[in-house]
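assembly run, all chains below
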Amino acid sequence: MLRLSGVTAGYGDAPAVLQDVDLDVAAGEVVALLGPSGSGKSTLLRCVAGLTPLRGGRVDIGGADATDLPVERRGVGLVFQDHALLPHRDVTGNVGLGPRLQGLAASEVASRVAAVLADVGLGHLADRPVDALSGGEQQRVALARALAARPRLLLLDEPYGALDRPLRERLLDELPPLVRAAGAAAVLVTHDQDDALAVADRVAVLLAGRLRQLADPETCWTRPADPDVARFLGAGPLLPVRVRDGVGEGPAGRLPLPDVPDGPARVLLPAARLAFDDGTARGGDVVVPAVLLGSRFAGDHHSVRVEVAGSAHPVRLRRPAPPTAGPGAAVRLRIAASDLVAYPGSATQ
Amino acid sequence: MSRGRTALAVGPLAFLLLLFVVPLGRVLTVGLLDAEGGPLTPLLDVVADPRLREAAWFTLWQAVASTGLTLAVGLPVAAVLSRLEFRGRRVVEAAVMVPFVLPTVVVGAAFVALLGALPSGLVPQRGVLPILLAHAFFNVAVVVRTVGGLWQHLDPAPALAARGLGAGPLRAFLVATLPRLRPAVAAAAVVVLLFTMTSFGVVLVLGGSGAATLEVEIHRATVRFLDLGTAAALSVVQLVAVVATLGVYARLRRRAGSERLRRATAARRRPRSAGERTAVAAALAVLGLLHGAPLAALVLRSLRVGDGWGLAHYRTLDAPTRAAVLSVAPLEALWNSITIAAAATAVAVLLGLAAAVAAASGSRLGRFADGALMLPLGTSAVTLGLGLLLTFRTGPLAGRGAVLLVPLAQALIATPFVVQTVLPVLRDIDDRLREAVATLGAAPRRVRREVDLPIVSRATLVAAGFAFAISVGEFGATVFVARATSPTVPVAIERALGLPGAVNLGRALALSVLLALLTGVVVLLVDRVRVGALGRF
Amino acid sequence: MRRSLATIATGALLVAGCGAEAPRTVTLLTHDSFDVSEEVLAAFEAEQGLEVRVVPLGDAGAALNAVALTADDPGGDVLFGVDSTFLTRALAADVFLPHLAADLDAVDPSFLPPDDRVTPVDFGDVCVNADLAWFADRGLAVPRTLEDLADPAYRGLLVVQNPATSSPGLAFLLGTIERLGEEDAFRYWAELRANDVLVTDGWTDAYYGAFTHAGGGDRPLVVSYASSPPAEVLFAEEPLDVAPTGVLLDTCHRQVEYAGVLRGATDVGAARALVDALLSPAFQADLPLTMFVFPVRGDVALPEVFATHAVLPDAPVAMDPARIDAGRETWIARFDAVVLR
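ok done. output:
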């Protein structure tokens, strides 16, 4: 439904914010665009919507070249973090705006509005003025407004960032079914990894204006495309090693890295694949030493902070029961050798 | 999306060119180029003359003092009227406009009578203080309408947050509200400054002997001495002062940041605390004193018949007048005033909206238009009037066509008011609103219709009421434009006061009161308009 | 408007009588205080087959200004409203054509201008007016001469207008200079200042703002016109037998008002006819009640209210227009220095 090819964009005479970005999103799919502040996520959305012109590349929507198409003809729905609802119209007035602009008859507009409001669970608020709604209700109206226009593409720019966690999670859960039912493709911009994990079919990692990885969430977190992505995602401890003959020597001991050329390298131990070695290690597993930093109860499990030797970044692991040792104690972690991810070259390259 | 909006500035600028730049240029050319000793001589003479230097200095400081006083009175009143709801609020809002429409001669007489009734020595009947008071009397309306137009839509949340953090009401206002109001306050201050710098009637009547501003000197030079060289040179000095003022304004006008604008009725509430109720009472008291007292004096005087009271003067308005060529049938004059003002308002609102949209888009041409449109406010009415006369006495706007010239000349003064009232609201509209609506399928013009126009609709109505009152009051150069074909009420009042006789005085007073009443009613009606999206925000 | 009905009627008459012929238009440029009765004008239009368009251009100075600046194409045929104070200036600006009006011999010789480019039409006297009731109530004698006004017995009772901004104010100043001589006049003004004279900027403010009779002010002596007492009677709320205000005849200064055919007139013949008409008995008799001035024709009867209540000085004082033009600016500056600073 959406394809970006080599998109480069920026503002005014400033250096380009987006560099040569390729991205595709299928109908019914939700892609989370993840990146730190300033990475160009919002710019990318604006380019897709037609609000920011491209310096290079092209945008295809629905299979046709939309690069030179004006905003109002792209069939794109936009939801901002601060709803951007028309303050002088009530809920029905706002939601019905899209259908009205499309020239539908009043009765059709009314029925579509009613249907969409029902979908987002706000049928009872149809006649309320916008400023009488809570934050969550306002964002839902914003979403309803975008959906009522039957867009081919739904763009959401940190839509629930201002809301509290439980509300945010609930709204995120509601999103994918709505998108699929509408047959649209959706791109959700966020800097919050939990949001991305909650809602995305695939995650696009945007760092410093370049798209580094576009894959399903598990792949991103267990096989990040490069060390920067790994670090941004907090995928796990990243250890510097020196490889000789397929074995990496480093502060955590010897790690089997059969296909890695000799020389310096960095090795990621994806946290998703790390577990405590309670004597359960099997053949093909690697065991690494770590230091237990602390533990806290997290509702339905214990969240234990450990730091792998040689890694500067601690990682959290789950345990059903609290650890037996206290902070500062040495522990051992195990991971399957096949789960190790190696990046040849040193950190400075 | 910005190019279309920039082009909107062309209309107002063309209007300004035709009705202001060309006539002004004519007068300055004739006055300076034909002067003996060359064009610079009158300018040097003016600068060297100590009396004229004194007049320039007086012009400046009384204008600054008047502006300060007007803001000091007007801002609290604007606060009360735009944030608090109380019975009679709408009437008070409309009544604030009434002083604008009264001829200065009538106002001057009312002030003199009122001040004369005070214990002697408290406030002199003539002098600088009466001038400042009269200026405040007229111009509070500017502050209330311009600043109030934005204030009524401001989200109260930031101020409340400041209060929650422990700031007192004044501190909260200074820290959280005033910065967001700054564009509107700056606009109001500049307008009042320009108005008071070119103030003529008030200074003449209330200034006492010897008080002279540049405007009075220009009038003197033009009309008494037929010394166009001096008049032109003084007009140039005025222009320099105006341009400098507008330069300062351009600095103050910088946007404080985009706002979440609220519906006016949502932003208003009934006074809750004793402090707020006191504030309402205090504002009403000040208005009652400043506006109410002179107006009451006027009404009382108009009801005085011989040694008793009665409506005799009002009844004579309906009686047949002498069948003389230029005598003005009062009711006809009333009708003329209203229709001409309506035409001028329509022109001013159209041009003003166009200029405001262009200025809000941030384009350089738009911002230039915003400043340039204020030039007529600070230009000598005498000079401009003469220029209009010279430019338009032949051609399509001469003779019978002068009927068109009067509303156009009035629109010259009214248009910048529209711009200054609408622009702060327009500028505060979040761009993302427009972007969201665009993605829903609206082309740029439709975006404006769906987003900008409804949100500024109420501010526009506020501005329209204002423009109407200004036109009825015939500020500026229209005083000097030929009006043979359709005499208006200020003309009728002037003619009545040009002859001795109690009947004439009574008639002038009755007409003034009627005009004030009628204007108040029209402004009230305009303020209440609810048609479609207009006025609902 | 009533005027257009008269015009339509005139036009219909013409068409019916003479066959299809559009009426010629003659344009009268004047000041805001001009007026003439509709029937008088209509009679003129019918008689001449003309349509008269009256265009007020502001006050007298503004009107002259506008015409002087556009002398080649003033947009009008006749200018009415040049008075003695501006006469020399107007003649120097060369805006008029010579014209000897038809009824000039009916005019009192004292009104005849030095130049045949202008025609006298009316005159008025600027004099100090007194509120008779105020003086009667206090048993004070009404002052009679200029010198009386400087007497401490009448301290703080007089209001005059600033000659720089007011036409009657200037006329009164000229009157004092003409009667006393320049040096003595300004000595006199210094005495008036010491006697607490109030100076306002305009006639309206003085009459309706400071004069006791009309405005409820506190000064029973005001510089106004000899036609003001009859106006007070005419425009009184209840019928009066005696004029409530009186005129100090020894303080008066006479001004004559002139009209002329404009050099840039489009229809000179019609212009001449109009100027002649201004001197006709009909117009002259109409003047007092429309403009509150006096006709220059000696053989025209004044209206009842004027005949009964208007008093004119036997030996009128009027400064020569050339002398006015030569000294005006100096004298106004001197007034400023002596009285206002």
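Chains A and C do not touch (no CB pair under 8 Å).

Chain A has two domains: 2-228, 236-344.

not gonna interpret more than that til we talk
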